[in-house]
């Protein structure tokens, strides 16, 4: 069963800015260029028979192109400890509308995406419990900015987990 998510891929100039901000935390598992994305919907394990209906439903998603940017950094916690570092993407109305339409298309295809509140971001690092402190890095990069860039489409990715980290393979790209 494929493990799928739907995301926006930042252009090279934005990814370069994000890559330049990475480093300086002992034990952090920094993302590489191929892993940088802003998720619209995480689907998880999907039955193979649902992939075709999903592709067809996503073809019906309509949205005008719009601009987004990276602004600031932050972290997620698990059990009171930092578990990931991210670069923020402000939730504009065009982005929220596209995300809702993508989720609706997933449901039409019989797939229920992850139900957490949508917080757009680009994950920069995964942090094991043994990772060093993140406070200095957050302070240093708190004003990180990249973009804006024009969102002209979205992509369905397959995620394959490996000991070295996740490998993301683009399956289908959609234009707005």
UniProtKB/TrEMBL annotation:
Keywords annotated in UniProt:
Hydrolase
Q: Does the keyword Hydrolase apply?
A: yes
Q: Which organism is it from?
A: Croceibacterium soli
Which InterPro entries has this protein been placed in? Cyclic_Pdiesterase (IPR009097), Phosphoesterase_HXTX (IPR014051), RNA_CPDase (IPR004175)
Entry annotated with the keyword Hydrolase:
yes
**Gene name?**
thpR
Chain positions of motif HXTX 1: 37-40
HXTX 2 (motif): residue ranges = 121-124
Descriptive protein name: RNA 2',3'-cyclic phosphodiesterase
Q: Which reaction does it catalyse?
A: a 3'-end 2',3'-cyclophospho-ribonucleotide-RNA + H2O = a 3'-end 2'-phospho-ribonucleotide-RNA + H(+)
Q: Check the record and name the PANTHER family matching this protein.
A: RNA 2',3'-CYCLIC PHOSPHODIESTERASE
Catalytic activity, EC: 3.1.4.58
Domain of life here?
Bacteria
Please report which protein family the annotation says this sequence is part of: Belongs to the 2H phosphoesterase superfamily. ThpR family.
MF terms in GO: 2',3'-cyclic-nucleotide 3'-phosphodiesterase activity; RNA 2',3'-cyclic 3'-phosphodiesterase activity
What the protein does?
A: Hydrolyzes RNA 2',3'-cyclic phosphodiester to an RNA 2'-phosphomonoester.
| SUPFAM superfamilies linked | LigT-like (SSF55144)
What is an example of a Pfam family matching this protein? LigT_PEase
Q: Active site: which residues? A: 37, 121
What are the residue boundaries of the Phosphoesterase HXTX domain, all occurrences included? 10-80, 92-168
């Amino acid at each position: 069963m494929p493990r799928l998510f739907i995301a926006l891929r930042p252009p090279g100039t934005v990814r370069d800015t994000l890559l330049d901000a990475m480093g300086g935390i002992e034990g952090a598992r920094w993302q590489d260029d191929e892993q940088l994305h802003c998720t619209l919907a995480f689907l998880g394990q999907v039955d193979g028979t649902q992939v075709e209906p999903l592709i067809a439903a996503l073809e019906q998603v309509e949205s005008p192109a719009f601009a987004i940017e990276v602004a600031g950094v932050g972290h997620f916690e698990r059990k009171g400890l930092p578990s990931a570092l991210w670069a923020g993407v402000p939730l504009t109305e065009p982005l929220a509308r596209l995300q809702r339409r993508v989720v609706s298309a997933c449901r039409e295809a019989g797939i229920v995406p992850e139900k957490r509140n949508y917080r757009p971001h680009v994950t920069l690092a995964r942090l094991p419990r043994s990772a060093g402190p993140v406070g200095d890095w957050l302070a240093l990069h708190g004003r990180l900015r990249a973009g804006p860039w024009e969102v002209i489409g979205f992509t369905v990715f397959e995620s394959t987990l490996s000991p070295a980290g996740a490998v993301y393979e683009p399956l289908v790209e959609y234009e707005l």
